[in-house]
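Example 9 (inverse folding). The structure is encoded as follows.
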């Protein structure tokens, strides 16, 4: 793995359309730590795949992608989030699309902030709507609450199947568009996406966040907070492909590689590559 970089990320920063960076931080993880190792493991896994995406007719050797490597993570979550914001905002100001490889889900907040006013779509098993958790406002269990209240123009969650009673009440009282994993199964992912796209019709820019625990642990066992009865990888891939045209920032978070034999990192890397291909195809249309 040349220079410990993501496969096919061969462009310079100046020439790139997509810029990846890793954040090896899991300082607020509440169950199983280890997501700090995920950027490295996804990079390793990325070398498993062919460059050509036959479904989308895109060859990643033709796509300008740059990998900045990992940014420094600090003991303090607040200091780490500040560092993430500095990097992500620099990418956005340079006119490029940031792709963040976490690390835990708290890291999403500064990436969304860097992208400006956006609609926020998150695939997640958990609501993440607490005001604070473990005495921390910037805990991974609070990220969606603060994005809703501070940053997002519109908000949609897909794959939910866990939360406190108060979080479910918050969703109902605020009229938040939230699809549970059961909704996805009952309605079908196409119907879920049609409703999502209709809701986001007036929103030209989307930030898309993938907490890998949205996926059932039968497919993705290496997770910080696994939750059974989740989405399938194909359902997640369909969300990525359908929303890619409007997406201006993307992340994959909460893989904990120490709990499997590379299965979840392989899936995470593949979904990143699929996002890049889908977004690039939409840009060439």
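The amino acid assigned to each position is listed next.
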């Amino acid at each position: 793995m040349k220079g410990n970089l993501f496969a096919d990320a061969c462009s310079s920063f100046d020439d790139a359309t997509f810029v990846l960076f890793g954040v090896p931080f899991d300082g607020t993880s509440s169950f199983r730590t280890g997501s700090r190792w995920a950027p490295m493991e996804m990079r390793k896994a990325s070398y498993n795949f062919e460059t050509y995406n036959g479904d989308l007719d895109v060859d990643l050797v033709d796509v300008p992608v740059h990998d900045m490597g990992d940014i420094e993570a600090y003991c303090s979550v607040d200091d780490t989030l500040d560092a993430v914001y500095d990097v992500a905002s620099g990418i956005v100001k340079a006119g490029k699309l940031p792709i963040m490889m976490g690390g835990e889900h708290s890291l999403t907040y500064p990436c969304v902030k860097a992208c400006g006013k956006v609609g926020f779509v998150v695939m997640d098993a958990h609501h993440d709507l607490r005001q604070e958790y473990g005495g921390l406002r910037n805990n991974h269990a609070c990220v969606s609450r603060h994005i809703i209240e501070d940053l997002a123009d519109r908000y949609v969650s897909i794959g939910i199947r866990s939360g406190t009673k108060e979080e479910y009440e918050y969703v109902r009282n605020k009229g938040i568009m939230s699809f549970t994993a059961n909704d996805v199964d009952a309605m079908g992912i196409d119907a879920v996406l049609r409703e999502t796209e209709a809701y986001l019709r007036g929103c030209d820019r989307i930030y898309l966040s993938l907490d890998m625990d949205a996926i059932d642990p039968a497919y993705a066992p290496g997770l910080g907070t696994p939750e059974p009865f989740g989405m399938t990888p194909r359902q997640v891939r369909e969300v990525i492909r359908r929303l890619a045209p409007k997406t201006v920032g993307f992340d994959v978070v909460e893989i904990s590689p120490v709990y499997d034999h590379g299965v979840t990192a392989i899936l995470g890397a593949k979904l990143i590559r699929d996002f890049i291909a889908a977004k690039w195809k939409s840009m060439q249309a």
